[in-house]
Automatic annotation (TrEMBL), chains A, B:
Keywords: FAD, Flavoprotein, Oxidoreductase. It comes from the Bacteria. One of its GO terms (molecular function) is glycolate dehydrogenase activity. This is Glycolate oxidase subunit GlcD. Residues 36-216 form the FAD-binding PCMH-type domain. The keyword Oxidoreductase applies. The keyword Oxidoreductase applies. Its cofactor is FAD. Its EC number is 1.1.99.14.
Length: 461, 461
């Protein structure tokens, strides 16, 4: 509970219309995509950087917890006030695109801009912002940076961190800092922008972002290959990529995911296939597109591809991608609740990971469909629970997921490719990091936030 | 001076052949490319990570300064033991390429591997490691990472930081840490690898690097354009790049640099040209190459290009690049000593920067030829001093350089695009960073190195 004097001070600071403590408003900031609920003690909407500065300095002095929040679309509880305190929301007053600089191919934005709005704005100028998390219609650029969001285009274009050139942020003590530059090359001082990316709101509140843009590729085309086994499909992926093709996306569905989509939508998918790969290439001239598709076809067919189709028009393009886009909702045929995690391993270790998942599925008696981004080894593993009200089945589900994390880490993978750690994966941190590494994280946290007011206890810190 | 007991302990630890305190040996580790000289108290060659661990833990306990060193090719004194202590050299026992993984397109290397050796090794397998600092024949990958080295290919392929996926390092207290992963996507924990890049050996000693590789582009071709003015040339650069062409390199020489090369080598260069642009494009199919060159030709000619030539064979390719490759040595026609710095501004601000440089040249009565990487706004600015033994001229040179830094920063540029801060630019740090930002750097330094034994006082810290 927030003391009345603090509530009064903060309310005066930003105005009553920008500070709420009533349950109805708080409810709207108590959720994210985890479906956990944590009521904050208040929600505050700073109007500008100076407000952020004053809020943080005040809360730091009075040891009031601050949880920064974008759109609340996170999958790991990063924006949840699980330990009370205030949600500091950037969605209301930090939603402007400040500058799109076509000469330097960069843009300056406020952190509350929705990813997709920004993509549309730059594409209208013939430019391109590649990071495309599945949440792009709702999630904010500030949230994307704080979680280092990925997406389907990562195989070719990388992830959010590859597009952050500079930022402004406010430290818990109220210090305003700038980090990075509008220049590709900048090696003066420590890479503070680099460490704020993916820091899940634990180190500072970002108030402005300078993002890198590309020219928009003129052409793109998609293709699909059907394989007898995941192993063959993965061999085809890495041989294609080593040949000089860097596909924009290289997505896969396993047999369970294929069957789920077919059961729901009857699209004529191959029910017996071990895997489907769906890929897209882009470029500037038709010959570059056809060369890439030729290479992919060759390496697919040399590695057990039994059916290869190239989309010849936008309808066929849509059709090819239908299965991938509808995989996530279709797998609900296997159970009422899915425990889904974005496990990532080095690309070539995907077959080994999926073998482990098959074993774990057997062992725990749970169906585990998988699909995702083979281009970067990022798999969405879905442990399906038939009845979430059965505590023993839920328990088995959690244990199966933990076994999957252990397998991924044994294969030199990571706890999270895209979603972050937040609350949901905090307890798994010791699986991935040594005590010395965790101690270093804590010292870094303290260098930014000595009073531990900013999103405390997240990431297992 | 190192106490005898410490010398004995360290000598015993690594063996007498790996620890020197005699002047002849020390001399060989007292220099770098700055031409400053600082004799260390000793030079030690750890044989493996365990040696690094023990050396650091011991020196940390006894407050002995450690200066990590690769090949000593740095331009800013990062590897110089300006405050005594030991040089810790990684060139002798850390020079192995541990793994080139063609499935995942990554390599694991020790930090002492020479950049060019590594490039050759991966190219023999049809792969590609883009970062190509001018020092590539001598400099080490560990040094490249510690300084975040750039190079000519940065406009298209980025810089060293874009290729570091993971690393192992030893903290001053002897803790061994791993940071990053072999996966494109990894968002678990703080981005410790990100902050070690460009940290100039101030935070930890890197003992292993996992680097990202690309497939080697099959085709490349170069072209040259002659312009009446720098302004026109820069307009041509940004219009080309906004059209969807991302050249591998887009290099320029100003009039003074052109005349210097011509005076030395009589290659028939246009002595009256305001600027020459030399560019290279690459790709997989001939049509992709010709489309890019067509776009560049169009945008060059629409912006005042008076002569445009495409290299049709390897001899012509060599000829086009001759002027750029020989600019650095040729400008010695203007003076015995050059004060050269790698100032970087946003691409579109290059004409404004070069106008400022022209004014500063007038004001201080010094010739200042410029050349460099327009694709990323990185200019090598060379303040030429006729007589380095004349203290007043040297003083004027230093003041001119300081005026140039101020101009660059006013244009949202950086103190250093490629060379780092080290000793040489330490005094300029307050021009670029606020007291709050400097204080944060110091807290980050202390989070890694509380006793300040690792390359202390560098970067103005």
């Amino acid at each position: 509970m927030l003391e009345t004097r603090h509530a009064q001070h903060l309310s005066q600071l930003v105005g009553v219309q920008n500070f709420y403590t009533d349950p109805a408003h708080l409810q709207a900031y108590a959720y994210d995509a985890t479906k956990e609920r944590h009521m904050p003690d208040g929600v505050i909407f700073p109007r500008d950087e100076e407000d952020v500065r004053q809020i943080l300095a005040y809360c730091n002095a009075h040891q009031i917890i601050i949880v920064p929040r974008g759109a609340g679309t996170g999958f790991t509880g990063g924006a949840l006030s699980a330990h009370g305190g205030l949600v500091l929301s950037l969605e209301k007053h930090f939603d402007r695109i400040l500058e799109i600089d076509t000469k330097n191919l960069i843009a300056r934005v406020q952190p509350g801009v929705i990813n997709k709005h920004f993509q549309n704005a730059v594409e209208a100028l013939g430019l391109f912002y590649p990071p495309d998390p599945a949440s792009q219609d709702q999630s904010t650029l500030g949230g994307n940076v704080s979680e280092n969001a990925g997406g389907m285009r990562a195989a070719k274009y990388g992830i959010t961190k590859d597009y952050v050139m500079a930022l402004r942020a406010v430290l818990p003590n109220g210090d305003v800092i700038r980090a990075g530059k509008k220049t590709i090359k900048d090696v003066a001082g420590f890479n503070v922008a680099g460490i704020l990316i993916a820091s899940e709101g634990c180190l500072a509140v970002i108030t402005e972002l300078t993002l890198k843009l590309l020219a928009k590729p003129k052409l793109k085309q998609s293709a699909m290959g059907v394989f007898g086994s995941i192993g063959e499909a993965m061999e085809a992926v890495y041989k294609s990529m080593a040949s000089g093709v860097t596909p924009v996306a290289m997505e896969f569905l396993d047999n369970l995911s294929i069957r789920a989509v077919e059961q729901r939508f009857a699209k004529g998918l191959p029910m017996d296939a071990g895997a489907i790969l769906i890929t897209q290439v882009d470029g500037s001239v038709p010959e570059q597109i056809s060369w890439q598709l030729d290479q992919i076809e060759k390496h697919f067919k040399e590695n057990g591809c039994i059916d290869f189709r190239i989309a010849q028009n936008s309808q066929q393009e849509e059709d090819l991608w239908f299965a991938r886009r509808n995989a996530s909702q279709s797998i609900s045929v296997y159970g009422k609740k899915k425990l889904n995690e974005d496990v990532t391993v080095p690309r070539a270790s995907l077959p080994a990971l999926l073998e482990e998942v098959a074993k774990i599925s057997q062992e725990y008696g749970l169906t585990i469909p998988c699909f995702g981004h083979t281009g970067d080894g990022n798999v969405h593993v879905n442990v399906m629970v038939q009845d979430p009200n059965d505590p023993s089945e839920m328990q088995r589900g959690q244990e199966a997921m933990e076994a999957i994390f252990k397998s991924a880490i044994a294969l030199e993978g990571t706890l999270s490719g895209e979603h972050g750690i937040g609350l949901s994966k905090a307890r798994f941190m010791p699986l991935a990091f040594s005590p010395e590494e965790m101690a270093l994280f804590k010292r870094i946290k303290a260098a930014f936030d000595p009073n531990n007011i900013l999103n405390p206890f997240k990431m297992g810190l």
